Amino acid sequence: MVELPKRLQIKLSERATNNALRQLPIANHLIDFSSNDYLGFARDEAVFKMASEILRNEGIRTNGATGSRLLTGNSELYGQLEALLAKFYDTEAALVFNSGYDANIGFFSSVPQRGDVVLYDELCHASIRDGIGMSNAQHYKFKHNDVEDLYRSIERVKSKNTDSIIYVVTESVFSMDGDAPDLEALAILCKANGCYLVVDEAHAVGVYGEKGEGLLHQLVQQDKVFARIITFGKAMGCHGAAILGSEALKSYLVNFARSFIYTTGLPPHSLATILAVHQRLENNGQVGTPFGGIQTLKNNIQFFNARLIALGLEQYFIPSNSAIHCCLVPGNKQVKYWSGQLREKGFDVKPIMSPTVPKGQERLRFCIHSYNSENQINSLLLHLEMLVHLSEK
Question: What is the pLDDT of residues 157-172, one digit of tens each?
Fold first, then answer.
């Protein structure tokens, strides 16, 4: 076997020295406070059976797409799914991608053009940053969730580049902080300045909205954005993503988004699973009955926050009303230790270390689910309280 080049070995060694070496985790049977499976759909037998039934009813017995969607991979299920998504999320059109990463690099590498400017929140996901970096547009970050700083950035761009198209990019729920921007203020600012607002709703769909349509829909702002990116690997418990917007945007992406054009389509079972999940959210087996797990999840989030206050732990957490809650524990060594201590008590809580987050902002990331019990949440936070007290002695 050919050895790894020495300069790459050095980079790995540096990661190990800094307690930042990433390794694939081993599956465990701990109480889940780390996965993105907020509604439990990834392990929902009803969804599995519904997906299988969809395939049987359609007479589909193939395992793969057989090619890109522009060649042989555009099955009838894609048409059904994109029509359902457009209706469910109250948008003109939807285009399915193989993953959230593919959707973001496809959109941001192809839509902003040379001479355009992209202004993005400094905490936007790596896939957004990578896509922006692949475009020919200029790009600048603005301070996290700071509408005033964004306004100043827009003014600077407009004073220098009067003909530039400006894209403003944010997330409705940030994956590493769990907080949310003022989407209504952003929509007003973008409309007033002729900017195109793009929002990644990866961690909001399935969590916000009566049926899980996302935070923009809950705030009735879905018609005020140029594009929404939604993913199915979080609360939807499956795989894939979609970009929501106008029919013209969909046509443009089909023609110019390289991560869409040059990849094999999703297998039929993946499409059927996405269909099944949305049917379950829409009806829960009965017409007009939303999926009850969303309310259970919301109740658990409220309970988690209430216990933080009762135990005096809220000062260590980034404020959040989403399913993601982060306790700041500076230092890779310390946050790994705390994670290990919670693991020994039976709780799966992952440490988020630098360089994933800035040095000094390492944290424990708690993900709340509809299937977590109040007893589990309370026990977890009592163990965390003990760790906090021990660290302060």
Answer: 999 877 889 999 999 9
Number of domains in the chain: 2
Whether residues 339 and 269 share a domain: the answer is no
Tell me 313's DSSP state: -
The torsion of the CA quartet 32, 37, 41, 42, rounded to 10 degrees, works out to -80
Tokens 């009803």 appear where?
Answer: 46
Contacts for 121 with CB less than 8 Å, ≥ 6 apart:
141, 142, 144, 145, 169, 170, 171, 174, 181
Instruction: Give the sign of the dihedral formed by CA 175, CA 178, CA 182, CA 184.
Output: positive
Both structure tokens of 319: 């404020």
What does the alpha-carbon distance between residue 269 and residue 276 come to, in Å, rounded to a whole number?
10
Please tell me whether residues 330 and 247 are part of one structural domain: no
> If 0-12 CB within 10 Å is exposed, 13-18 middle and 19+ buried, where does residue 171 land?
buried
Determine the Cα–Cα distance for residues 357 and 11; give it in Å rounded to an integer. 18
Residues 305-310: contacts with CB within 8 Å, 24+ apart?
Answer: 307/377, 307/378, 307/381, 308/381
Chain centroid to CA 253: how far? 20
User: CA 206, CA 365: separation in Å to the nearest integer?
Assistant: 19
Question: How far from 335 is each of 46, 49, 55, CA to CA, in Å?
Answer: 37, 40, 45
- Rg for the chain, CA atoms, rounded: 22
127: domain range?
45-283
Residue whose token pair is 């509408």: 147
pLDDT 10s digits, 264-317: 999 999 999 999 999 999 875 343 344 568 999 999 999 999 999 999 999 999
CA–CA distance, 85 with 91 (Å, rounded to integer):
8
Compute, in degrees rounded to 10, the torsion defined by CA atoms 189, 192, 117, 241. 60
Token pair 């993601």: residue:
324
Residue in 267, 212, 205, 272 with CA at minimum distance from that of residue 242: 205
Q: d(Cα 348, Cα 339) in Å, to the nearest integer? A: 8
Is 325 in the same domain as 264? Answer: no
Confirm whether pTM is higher than 0.90: yes
Q: In one letter, which amino acid is 49?
A: K
pLDDT over 90, % of the chain: 90
